[in-house]
Automatic annotation (TrEMBL), chain A:
Localization, UniProt: Nucleus
Keywords annotated in UniProt: ATP-binding, DNA replication, Nucleotide-binding, Nucleus
AAA+ ATPase domain: residues covered: 54-191
Similarity section: Belongs to the activator 1 small subunits family.
Pfam families: AAA, RCF1-5-like_lid, Rep_fac_C
SUPFAM superfamilies linked: P-loop containing nucleoside triphosphate hydrolases (SSF52540), post-AAA+ oligomerization domain-like (SSF48019)
Protein name: Replication factor C subunit 2
GO BP annotations listed: DNA repair; DNA strand elongation involved in DNA replication
TrEMBL record, chain B:
Molecular function GO terms recorded: DNA binding; DNA clamp loader activity
Entries under InterPro entries matching the protein: AAA+_ATPase (IPR003593), DNA_pol3_clamp-load_cplx_C (IPR008921), DNA_Rep/Repair_Clamp_Loader (IPR050238), P-loop_NTPase (IPR027417)
Cell compartments where the protein resides: Nucleus
Residue stretches spanning the membrane: none
Family that this chain belongs to: Belongs to the activator 1 small subunits family.
Protein name in UniProt: Replication factor C subunit 5
UniProt xrefs under Pfam families: DNA_pol3_delta2, RCF1-5-like_lid, RFC_C
Keywords: DNA replication, Nucleus
GO biological process: DNA repair; DNA strand elongation involved in DNA replication
Domain AAA+ ATPase residue range list: 34-187
GO cellular component: Ctf18 RFC-like complex; DNA replication factor C complex; Elg1 RFC-like complex; Rad17 RFC-like complex
Length: 372, 368
């Protein structure tokens, strides 16, 4: 007996989630293209398409959480309104089976009926409802080359009544003949001031007090990914509201949520490797000179791994300490930089994290103790 | 009779012994109604799974403990049958997509869609969403991860995802961006001792401090291992006093033997001998990475300081190649050859410099 029944189409109204319980990323997803923060250029171009009856094929690309999916959904909604959205917009993403025959079939079915314009919607507003349908291929960079190749023909076959919007993170994974058929829109990581104003807007709407240092912690930990900073903000506010009495959100909370390794931990590791930490409180001058051997480094690495910190996070924070270090020589830094680069690649390829943190540690240790 | 590990597994967030801050955080998230997608990560045996099931219990009440185990068959694009075990309750479902190997994407696509498009039928359910727990999320293929992305956004009103992984490094950024990260560190030695003593108290016997300390030291932060060892010891010597011999698992002893072989003699014949031993280990399904790390760590204990870093360097190097390559044994063997030649070269240097004697050098044709 199935515990979950397939939802019948008519009986249950869709998306009735109580807005108070909605995750903020969804609740504050831009409703119109003017809601989209930053991305001014893209928005300006798209705004024009709202008044003209034509739309080119489009290719949106950029890092996660910068508004690609939101923008195309908002644009489609503004073009067609709530009633026609369903039969005018087809969204296919990486969670759908995208073997080429299936894509072809879906698009064929969808593009079959010629759209009729019907301007006044049930909400009383007027929508342009231009005479074409939009096919959104989200996460297009995960489509195979073959499927992309076949898509060229499909785009041509249905050119009269369909417009394609390809959305991806890595534009280089889209084959050239396909990319060249589209107008390209680059989505950039959000700059600090846009992030900060969007976050403040949400905080005000949710009655959350945001100190400036919390905002900058959010900006620093999310590196231009707005979805990430909104998720962090919501979690932090949940946590701070749940204590009794409620405590304000601190920058430390954000770092903890974001999985940043605490400074004290990274500094401690760096010192084991012989890297001097500037402004360190317990200056033990003889301790510093004492070279700690292999065993000390290995023990430290084991301890770090037990703490469960992510290896790529450790590498990136250690990288910042070493590369920006005020007294290490350029030569030492170069040797370390090589180690960081190799480790990053290895970790992404799925190599053992402990072995590679140890490798990085030992190489830094050697670079620093060999020449000083 | 169930093992102690299972019998004394905490059921609610309040029962958990360590990381109180984390438990409190989970509790407030579960109470808030806008529970996010989550990613639990940390070393094995740190208690991620336990914490996840406590969180589910907090979300849905004791109903989540009524589990049902099913096997589902999926079809790969080439119509091959993939069998996946599924553990589910009325409120959640738990899968390990890596069971489907390269076709994990198919499992993710079909199963999640199916769940996402259905609604909670139990009107008394405390949440209107269902939870999907995905184990070993760090071994999800890129395609499977891509398949998760939009699903996670689109069906958020019906479904939440909890990913469980050892590390976040192998997860793509768009997935991390959609989750709240929860780091579960291994418990400290003191925390582990508390847990052991708690078990002893429940079973009404006395656990000498020496014994608990020894068990904890041996476990390397893995609480599951500590509890298993604890139970085994208690069977062997019921009063747990005097000097306890914590038996090493066979494969570990075997790995140590391999290390000894490498350090004792460096010759082509020895390489062959070691190779046979590696085959033996691999055919018993000991993961090659574990084999390499265990042998390497033993070797560095037994060589001069000047060689240690190099030996570990090559271990890291060949472990990485092993992941990408196909024949594990080649890379294990390559590492052994490398280590032997390093060892030999340093030894040669030392003896050469002290006296040029009539030592018979057995040359191995390895290029450095
Ligand atoms: N430019 C933006 N303006 C306003 N909100 C944004 C913007 N970018 C992202 N967001 C917020 O982040 C959430 C996710 O954005 P969106 O789905 O558009 O990202 P994406 O670019 O498609 O990312 P991915 O590459 O991971 O699919 C939105 O729901 C919204 O809350
Ligand atoms: Mg998107």
């Amino acid at each position: 007996m199935a515990f979950f029944q397939v939802q019948s189409n008519k009986a249950t109204p869709k998306h009735t989630a109580d807005p108070a319980l909605q995750p903020w990323v969804e609740k504050y997803r831009p409703k119109t293209i003017d809601d989209v923060s930053a991305q001014e250029h893209t928005v300006a171009v798209l705004r024009k398409t709202l008044t003209s009856t034509n739309l080119p094929h489009m290719l949106f690309y950029g890092p996660p959480g910068t508004g690609k999916t939101s923008t195309i959904l908002a644009l489609s909604r503004q073009l067609f309104g709530p009633d026609n959205f369903r039969n005018r917009v087809l969204e296919l993403n990486a969670s759908d089976e995208r073997g080429i025959s299936i894509v072809r079939e879906k698009i064929k079915n969808f593009a079959r009926q010629t759209p009729r314009a019907q301007m006044v919607a049930s909400d009383g507003k007027t929508y342009p409802c231009p005479p074409y349908k939009i096919i959104i291929l989200d996460e297009a960079d995960s489509m195979t080359q073959d499927a992309q190749g076949a898509l060229r023909r499909i785009m041509e076959t249905y050119a009269r009544i369909t417009r394609f919007c390809l959305v991806c993170n890595y534009v280089t994974r889209i084959i050239e003949p396909l990319a060249s058929r589209c107008s390209k829109f680059r989505f950039t990581p959000l700059d600090s001031s846009s992030t900060s104003s969007r976050l403040s807007q949400i905080a005000t709407a949710e009655h959350v007090v945001l100190e400036p240092d919390v905002i900058s912690a959010l900006i620093n930990t999310s590196s231009g990914d707005l979805r990430r900073s909104i998720t962090y903000l919501q979690s932090a506010s949940r946590l701070s509201a749940s204590t009794n009495p409620p405590t304000p959100i601190t920058a430390g909370d954000i770092q903890e949520i974001a999985g940043v390794v605490p400074d004290a931990v990274v500094h401690d590791f760096a010192k084991t490797l012989g890297v001097e930490i500037v402004g360190d409180m317990d200056v033990d001058n003889d301790g510093r000179k004492k070279t700690r051997g292999f065993d000390a480094v290995q023990a430290k690495v084991k301890e770090l791994m037990r703490q469960g910190y992510s290896a790529s996070q450790i590498v990136s924070q250690l990288h910042d300490i070493v590369i920006l270090h005020p007294t290490l020589h350029a030569r030492q830094k170069s040797i370390c930089a090589l180690a960081f680069a190799e480790a990053d690649k290895a970790i992404c390829d799925g190599a053992d994290e402990e072995l590679w943190i140890l490798e990085v540690g030992l190489r830094i240790h050697k670079a620093i103790s060999s020449d000083s | 009779m169930s093992l102690w590990v299972d019998k004394f597994r905490p059921k609610t967030l309040d029962d958990l012994h360590y990381h109180e801050g984390l438990s409190a955080r989970l509790k407030s998230l579960a109470a808030s109604g806008d529970f996010p997608h989550m990613l639990f990560y940390g070393p094995s045996g740190a208690g991620k799974k336990t914490r996840i099931s406590c969180t589910l219990r907090q979300l849905f009440g004791s109903g989540v403990e009524r589990l049902k185990i099913d096997q589902r068959v999926f079809l790969s694009p080439s119509k091959r049958k993939l069998e996946i075990n599924i553990v589910q309750s009325n409120y959640h479902i738990e899968i390990t997509p890596s069971e489907a190997g390269n076709y994990d994407r198919v499992v993710i696509q079909e199963l999640l869609k199916e769940i996402a498009q259905t609604q909670q039928v139990d009107l008394n359910a405390k949440q209107r969403f269902k939870v999907v727990v995905i184990n070993e999320a760090d071994s999800l293929s890129r395609d499977a991860q891509a398949a998760l992305r939009r699903t996670m956004e689109k069906y958020m009103s019906n479904m939440r995802i909890i990913l469980c992984a050892n590390s976040t490094s192998r997860l793509i950024a768009p997935i991390k961006s959609r989750c709240l990260l929860m780091r579960v560190a291994a418990p400290t030695p003191e925390e582990m001792q508390t847990v052991l003593h708690h078990v002893a108290k429940k079973l009404k016997f006395d656990l000498p401090d020496d014994a608990s300390k020894q068990i904890v030291d041996d476990s390397g932060g893995n609480l599951r291992k500590a509890l298993l060892v604890f139970e085994a010891l208690k069977m062997q010597s019921p009063d747990l006093s005097g000097s306890l011999a914590i038996a090493k698992p066979d494969w570990e002893t075997y790995c140590h033997k391999v290390a000894d072989l490498i350090v004792q003699e460096q010759s082509p014949a020895r390489v062959m001998e070691v190779r046979a031993k590696f085959y033996e280990l691999l055919s018993h399904c000991i993961p090659p990475t574990i084999v390499l790390k265990t042998v390497a760590e033993r070797v560095v204990e037994r060589v001069d300081e000047s060689l240690k870093a190099d030996i570990m360097h090559w271990a890291a190097f060949y472990e990485g190649r092993m992941r990408i390559g196909n024949k594990k044994i080649y890379h294990l063997e390559a590492w052994v050859v490398k280590v032997m030649s390093l060892y030999k070269a340093s030894f040669y240097m030392l003896t050469y410099m002290s006296t040029v004697n009539d030592h018979h050098f057995c040359h191995i044709a390895f290029c450095l």
